Amino acid sequence: MRLIKSCNPEHNIRTSSTAKLQVGSYYFYKQHENLEIKDEGEATNKLYVDIRGPFSISAANLNALTGGQFVSGTDQHSSAPRLPAFTRIKVQCLRVRRDGDPVIVDEARFEIERSLPNGFVFCMSLTDENQTSPLFESYSDSWSLPFEKSGLFAWHLSRMMTTQLQPEWIEPKLQQDIESGKISLDQVTVEVHDRAILYTDRHITLTAGDEEKINGVFSIIRSLAFTKPPRYSRDREYRFLLNVIAEHANGTKTIYAPAAELVRLTPDIPWVDLD
Predict the structure, then answer these.
(1) What's residue 93's pLDDT?
(2) Which residues face 239 on adjacent strands?
């Protein structure tokens, strides 16, 4: 498998000496991305789950789906799935036929939202070894690297963005925190998370017989930053999510949002290590 970046010749960082590696914010891609691959729901990070019963669900799982609003059973907290921080759940409907453990649900509807910062994003496509041409008709060129080198490429992305970071790229709070002595510049780095996009509906319906699918629902909730609707599956997107952070001595982190919609990095990459 390979990661391929579709582009035009002037943006091919492997063949053009003047090309820059362009990294955009979530909101940049939501508003300005090529219409061929644009996702209007980018960065919404919302999921809707409908249950049409009778549906059997453990008290622990129901408690997690309701954000702790439904308490039933004797030990639901210890075994409840752990959801990421900044997950907000709105219970729009919940009708329970039988309380206890498991719980029998007749009808339920949940709106689940991950409140993620507006980070930077760099996208490629995960293809087979024989793919050499750009994936999209609107581009005439491409560059690629082996999939097994994705972690090393992510490290280089972090390094380049950290060393080339400009104050105007980031919200003013970063500079204010440095000037006030709250943080020092050497505490600022760029954290990268990367994985293939999961193509799934943002509306999921569970009915009787779907009980085994509940774990998949929690997996989707944990991965909302890496999901898109199925209509974009031809993109085969592999996403690098970059957040500018300051790491504090007590182990906590402050995440700073982008001010710039698009930044251009000098591609200081030893390609011999990525072939």
Answers:
(1) 92
(2) 123, 195
- What is the model's pTM? 0.82
Mean pLDDT of 108-136: 82
Q: pLDDT for 130-151, tens place per residue?
A: 766 667 778 889 999 999 999 9
Segment among 5-9, 136-140, 263-267 with least mean pLDDT: 136-140
Beta pairing class for 103-114 and 141-146 = unpaired
Other C-beta atoms lying within 10 Å of the C-beta of residue 124: 26
The phi and psi torsions of 228 (rounded to 5 degrees) equal: -145, 160
Predicted confidence (pLDDT) per residue in 28-78, tens digit: 776 665 544 455 555 557 889 999 989 999 888 888 888 777 665 554 455
> In DSSP terms, which residues pair with 103 in a beta bridge?
57
CA angle 220–223–226, rounded 5-degree value: 115
Based on its alpha-carbon atoms, the radius of gyration of the chain, rounded to whole angstroms, reads 22
| CA-closest candidate to residue 224, choices 89, 107, 105 | 89
Mean pLDDT of the chain: 84
3-state secondary structure the chain: CEEEEEECHHHCCCCCCCCCEEEEEHHHHHHHCCCCCCCCCCCCCEEEEEEEEEEEECHHHHHHHCCCCCCCCCCHHHHCCCCCCCEEEEEEEEEEEECCCCEEEEEEEEEEEECCCCCEEEEEEEECCCCCCCCCCCCCEEEEEEHHHHHHHHHHHHHHHHHHCCHHHECHHHHHHHHCCCCCHHHEEEEEEEEECEECCCEEEEECCCHHHHHHHHHHHHCHHHEECHHHHHHCEEEEEEEEEEECCCCCEEEECECCCEEEECCCCCHHHHC
What is the dihedral sign for C-alpha 153, 154, 157, 163?
Answer: negative
